[in-house]
Amino acid sequence: MRTVPPALLSALFSLLAISAMLIAAVAAPQLAMAMLPAAVALMVALLFYEAPILAVGLLTACYGLALDLQLDLLAQSGGGSVGTLGAAVVKVIPFAIAAMLCLRYGFAPAINWPFLAFTIIAAVSLVILPMGRVSTFGEMVRSFIGSTAPFVLAFAAAPRPVWSALCKAVVGVPLLSAGVGLVTGVVGFYPPFDLNWRFQGLHSPPFLAGFCVTAVFAATLEYLRGFKTRWLVLGGASLAVLLATQARAPLIATGLFLLLVFTFSNRRIFPLKHKVDLAMGGLLPGAILLGPLVIYAAERFLGAEGYEQFSGRDIIWPYFLDAIESRPLFGYGLGAGKLIVDPEDPQIRLIRSNAAHNEYLRLAVDAGIIGCALIFVSIIIWIWGGTRRVRATDRLVLRCALLAALLHSGFDNTLIASTAVIQFTWFAAALARARMERQDVPGHRAALRAALARRANNA
Predict the structure, then answer these.
(1) What are the residues whose beta carbons fall under 8 Å from the beta carbon of 225, sequence distance 6 or more?
(2) In angstroms, rounded to a whole number, what is the distance separating the alpha carbons of residues 316 and 351?
(3) What is the distance between the alpha carbons of residues 437 and 305, in angstroms, rounded to a whole number?
(4) Which of 177, 223, 315, 366 ranks highest by number of CB atoms within 10 Å?
(5) pLDDT score of 161
(6) Can you give the pTM of this predicted structure?
(7) Do the Cβ atoms of 292 and 246 come closer than 8 Å?
């Protein structure tokens, strides 16, 4: 008995759905208008189900075009009609893509340790800690969604081309923001520079810099996997954008990553010839192109004084340290970190932020020292342990990126912002691709042995 191809079934279903909508539009126009958003959403979901690569493009576009920030600005200009839709959208998108992949391909075989750690902390926050006195249940749920969104794609299984596309697409996120940001600046829609003349593209300087860090990670991995010049160029472009943001912590983290990769790569991973070619052929044009940007970025490194020296971290960190001292072991509950600082405090209003700019302090307030250690140990086990049996190039780059991310977490919000979704989605995609390549090796070797045997028999 012949089976109907899934593509034909999908086409037939779409044809029936369109016919039903046309009939409803004639028979009951008001009902058809009410059903239209749901019908469109269903059609889009079916499209992404049939072509998962489109979901990769959706993820890149939404984060590259700063959908959350732009919708928030739209809400402000429109009297608040949109509200917090932007933040909700960028948090829901990874869940939607993960659900679609799980429905089509099933679940990944690897344990999602970070998601499990946050789930444990959320349960402890709900059952044991006095959440009612610190935060609301709704705030805890929002914090849980925001905290787990970067890791949710690790649940899904997918073909290697999907993971490979994700690994490469993240390089385009900061470049898309920078390129479109320059265009919008010309037409007056959104300023590409902030009030301090730091480049921000469609984002803010710290967020754009965070995307650049992941782009450099990804471009370096792709370059070392095939030594194609385009990844060197794209990585250099991301580094140029990073310098233009004048963001210090992301730049230091990126510098550490590149230093570790260059230092610990052996001749098999990074042959001496390519290192020499990069040094002789790449440093001179790099110095010419990036030199002015280095000088531009150095102004903030060398010329800042007073509060600007640490971007307010020396002001806000004591608030979190005092809170940790009061409840050191289990903290105040998930989502409490943003509530311990009074936004009307004169010093907080001076630095215009109540964010910790330190994930170790923020999570120690939320989950205590024990919970904070649990989260970061789970991330280390997930990445470090997940690279034990993969190819040497992937193992080196992912582990160096992990060390750089751990350093960066001490000076920025790296686990809950939209930059975290891109960074840990890249980690998840690179780990999944590496696992699949490892599984393909025995089959490839068996096929090679069979081909050699057939050749010997024919001879």
Answers:
(1) 393, 394
(2) 9
(3) 50
(4) 366
(5) 93
(6) 0.84
(7) no
Q: What is the pLDDT of residues 238-296, one digit of tens each?
A: 998 998 898 889 999 999 999 999 899 888 888 877 777 666 555 666 666 777 777 77
Q: CA 73, CA 71: separation in Å to the nearest integer?
A: 5
Alpha-carbon gap, residue 386 to 388, rounded angstroms: 6
Alpha-carbon distance of 357 to 367, in angstroms, equals 17
**Any residues with CB less than 8 A from the CB of 260 and at least 6 apart, and which?**
400, 403, 404
Q: Where are the domains of the chain?
A: 52-439
**Whole-angstrom Cα distance, residue 131 to residue 335?**
9
Report the distance separating Cα 254 and Cα 215, nearest Å: 10
- The DSSP line for 101-148 is HHHHH-B-SS--HHHHHHHHHHHHHHHTS-HHHH--HHHHHHHHHHHH
Q: What is the CA radius of gyration of the chain?
A: 24
CA dist 456 and 459 (Å) reads 5
Please determine, for residue 28, whether its predicted confidence score (pLDDT) is greater than 70. no
Angle between helices 359-380 and 313-326 in degrees, nearest 10: 70
CA neighbor of 167 nearest in space, from 135, 115, 214, 133: 214
What separation in angstroms does the CA of 285 have from each of 3, 278, 290?
Answer: 58, 10, 8
425 and 149 in contact (C-beta within 8 Å)?
Answer: no
